[in-house]
Amino acid sequence: MLGALSRAKGFDAFVRLAQTKSDAKADRLYVAAGQLHLDSEDLAAELERDGGLVFSRRLTEEEIHSLYGIADRIWACYSAEYDQSSGIFGRAVQYGAVPIVRLNSRIHRFALIEGLEVETLDITTEQLALSRGPTCSSRSSLRARLQGWRDRFWSTARASLDLTRSSENGRGDARNPNA
Predict the structure, then answer these.
(1) Alpha carbon distances (Å) from 61 to 30, 55, 79, 92, 148
(2) Is the model's pLDDT at 142 over the cut of 70?
(3) Is the pLDDT of residue 53 over 90?
């Protein structure tokens, strides 16, 4: 779990999941890294007692990138009161880590529409079983889709900022200083 360690961001569900006894748990290390909210200090202590790691501080950019790079899964399973878009989810997709999302949340519905690989967690029951959602056909297919999104972004940004005409007037292209 990266970012704010709070109940709103699902830290309580994260800790309960880490405490769930299963064969799969033996192969997992639960890491929570970020600013610990006062209402969650007890949860952090529980996670550490159960063998998890807690880094209660603001992380550097290098540390954040490193954690995304080595993680198999990234927590984006927020409470129902915090049902909104997630930069954590987007970064997980960019790094190729599988995001864990709350079943039927906005992020889950987005992943279904886009065909992104996610694991869902039903936090409305005491059974915190992970289940696989639909998967993208391959990592190369995902990379191609991400590149398409980047290309559309730059096309829209250029049109909005009128960068094409600026380039023609000799002022250059902000994305390509050699233009």
Answers:
(1) 20, 14, 26, 15, 26
(2) no
(3) yes
